[in-house]
Amino acid sequence: xxGAVSTATLAQDDAATDDDVEEVVVTGTRLNVxxxxxxxxxxxTVSKDEINIxxxxxxxxxxxxxxxxxAGQAGEVSNGASGxxxxxxxxxxxxxxxxxxxxKRLPYGTSTVATPNLVAPNLDIIPxxxxxxxxxxxxxxxxxxxxxxxxxxxxxxxRTDFEGIEFDAQGGFSQNGNGVELFDNVLRAGGQPVPGSxxxxxxxxxxxxxxxxxxxxxxxxxxxASYQVNAxxxxxxxxxxxxxxGASADPVTSFGGFGCVGSGNFRLFxxxxxxxxxxxxxxxxxxxFSGTPSNTFNFGPFNFFQRPSERFxxxxxxxxxxxxxxxxxxxxxxxxxxxxxQIAPTASFGTGAFSINCDNPLIQGGSGPxxxxxxxxxxxxxNIPDADTGLLPGDVSGITASHRNVEGxxxxxxxxxxxxxxxxxxxxxxxxxxxxEVFGQFARANDESAQTNDFITSNVQQAFFIVxxxxxxxxxxxxxxxxxxxxxxxRGANGESLVTQEALDFxxxxxxxxxxTEQIVVGGNVQTNLSEYGIQSPWSDAxxxxxxxxEYREDILxxxxxxxxQTPGGGFTGVxxxxxxxxxxxxxxxxxxxxxxxxxxDADFFKELTVSGEYRYSDYGTNGNGASNxxxxxxxxxxxxxxxxxxxxxxxxxxxxxxxxxxxxxxxGQNQGLANLNQAxxxxxxxxxxxxxxxxxxIATAAQCANTGVxxxxxxxxxxxxxxxxxxxxxxxxxxxxxxSDTYTVxxxxxxxxxxxLTISVDYFNISVDEAISQGIGAQVILDNCLxxxxxxxxxxxQRSPTGSxxxxxxxxxxxxxNLNIAxxxxxxxxxxxxxxxxxxxxxxxxxxxLRFDYAATYLDTFDFTPFPGGDVIECAGFFGNACGNNxxxxxxxxxxxxxxxxxxxxxxxxxxxxxxFAGTDNQSATAPAVDxxxxxxxxxxxxxxYSINENINLRAGILNVFNSQAPVSLSSGPPLGNGNTxxxxxxxxxxxxxxxxFSL
Length: 1001
Prior knowledge:
Layout: H1 4-9, E1 43-47, H2 48-54, H3 59-63, E2 69-70, E3 88-89, E4 97-101, E5 104-105, E6 131-138, H4 142-145, E7 152-158, E8 164-176, H5 181-189, E9 198-213, E10 219-230, E11 233-234, E12 246-247, E13 254-255, E14 258-259, E15 267-271, E16 274-277, E17 304-306, E18 309-323, E19 326-343, E20 354-357, H6 376-379, E21 395-403, E22 411-430, E23 434-455, H7 457-464, E24 466-468, E25 474-476, H8 501-507, E26 508-529, E27 545-561, E28 582-603, E29 606-624, E30 627-645, E31 648-659, H9 663-667, E32 671-676, E33 681-682, E34 688-689, H10 702-707, E35 725-730, E36 739-750, E37 758-774, H11 779-789, H12 792-795, E38 798-799, E39 814-816, E40 820-839, E41 850-866, E42 874-875, E43 879-880, H13 882-885, E44 895-904, E45 909-918, E46 921-923, E47 934-935, E48 938-948, E49 953-960, E50 991-1000
Parallel strand pairs: 4-7, 35-39, 43-46
Antiparallel strand pairs: 1-6, 2-3, 4-5, 6-7, 8-9, 8-50, 9-10, 10-18, 11-17, 12-14, 13-14, 15-16, 15-21, 18-19, 19-22, 20-21, 22-23, 23-26, 24-25, 26-27, 27-28, 28-29, 29-30, 30-31, 31-36, 32-35, 33-34, 36-37, 37-40, 38-39, 40-41, 41-42, 41-44, 44-45, 45-48, 46-47, 48-49, 49-50
């Protein structure tokens, strides 16, 4: 259950004594000398029962229901997937969340260099069936656990004394009845297939756990193995995602303000003579930008809502009491996870990225089937005399010749992540009053990515230079490497493609990237009760706890793409830029301590008054790509708990936390990547546009567009940013400094004696991150400020293509956004927890069991992002949209809750109903079209049942999203956390069923 306040908020149950408990793990502190004192840090706990009840076989699925957890990398991510699963507390980024197993940190899960916030612990290494509970502390705990605990800490506590044999088998699937009338009508208007009821996403999980205690009772060994396979869920099987939506007022091809606008044409051509689409019969359209189904491409059906994946996992652990005061322990974990991140077919993307020879036989004459119509020869500018010689050019550069690779099929990124981790140590006591622990751990993660069905940019260019040989055959001008002409300039008599398999074999390639991360940690601590030495408050007989420790950690990261992927400007057309190698390391030596002083106990109005403090000094060294640096940080915190009576406890804390820059942020080279722009509005033609200066009816004025580099000749003739996706120049910075954050929490815990079984907690939190590492100023912020002000600090960061477009494509175009310590993040709100349980017999219902209510909620008051000093604050609480999504989170409801109602019967059966609630959110962009202004309020109801046939066999079953509530639709749902016109990392995309059986001996 969401067990929360009574167990996790307190170090343990108040009724316990030191003699009752051998060992207590309290997340948020390493001290264990005062087991009965109230913890000052608010902690939310998810128990192993909750994992079983929800039927979740992936760690991210059950932690993501908590209102303090925001979207991160998960199985629902396709475009931009890392192949890992990450945890994102308070929405501050997975790189600012520290993940622990039994109090010890996990390593980075991937070397992916595309986005630094993917460099975060991988939850796949955690064994679900061995989890005893998960403690979530939100708000900095760097003084206790070290760097990265800015958003908070998630501590996965595993079972330590399992004995016996347990086999668990679970199967499940997803189902959606679809039939969403609005979007079915949009599909019909766009000439797209309408999905019926679907069953997909089948899942199977098999797990075996074997454990035994030693014959002398002094030790235990446990081994766990699991195999999990998940089938794909594709977007064509959902009404809301079967077409790529956009705002459209076209009376023929749209419905309800939506249209299947896709992401550009099957075939789009342009040059000095303008830009135009090609219709199915080969005719070049005039005027361009008509956006009809015949010349747009629907990329929606190809993408995944759930990646197909396969995972194998082993976890082994053991401990043995060498003496009465000395215990040895060791943990070993291994996991291998492979998945496929499929997205739509690639294209010869690139606005103005290619060249062509003007004697190319395929561009002569008119474009229509009868030889009339707009000529590609003229469109590309081959009819324009050279300014110096007055002669027609032989070759022209800066042309657009884009065709979706429907012949070759979708792009696939086959992701393979393998990780293993070894932990060993000793803990015990010495000198009667001192506890100690020394440990070492080593972890390594290898990741591989194979990207298939993409175009090699240089080969496409080579295949565009086409001439006739002596026999009149069309051949490549340069036939090296087996070049075959790529004919996208013409169509067959019936509109069929003339692209050959031989041409595809030449221009398609496979991009391979291999990387690894390593982590070495060595540390130890000692702690004691200072009261034994006469150091104690005169008003309390409780122990004064002191802990001192030292730790050394080294993180190493390396990523090596193949030579094609590293090609300057981008070796593949669908990547957006070169995939650059990165290599580096960070090491840190740390000294830390904690002190807990009970000031008053067991007095009138002071049942307990305790002050605690912690401090950590860290000395860092960085080395990579020929650059090195050093810096040091201080993290500290102080907290106060006051219980005037047994029923009421107040708590408050302040934490200064730090996050050191990771290797990618420091050392990755400058490169082109992708970013999303908000839809700026609907132009005078009723077409939604992303670039206010684009189309033949720009939203912005000529003067505003001139600020961004638009010439007078280009104004009114610019291709829009396709599906909002533009280019950014990203890159590392070896001179980055650590981020610093301040966290304040104030709260109260009420356990009224008059209402047994009831616990209530209310906590206010406020977290601010200064000098936050950001990929420069975001593309949207740059564009908005340049349009409005024309100031050089913004406009110098905009580079349009030769045709004036900001669409992703050729090298050197888009926005400059390299890493800097310039951003500020702020979030604040209130957490609520209520737990209540009672026997139904107490209310006269008879002896039919116990009823429990577990409620956890967060009211989000502020969630702000300031991109640079003096910049406008982007307010994200209660909003969604790319200005928030590109920098923080895609969806930020100002209120979320989870309410579980459980009935434990006396007949070996229990059942739970869960109500998940997301408040409605508004689009952050004031210029968003009407159809994209708000995401509606979402309610999900889940049901689960548990039946024990006997003491050895247990059955579980459940339905998540019982009423099949459809995910809300947004036109601003760009990758990586959004796709399919919604945000599958936040909202359910169907109804899930599961059935499980557990055998134990």
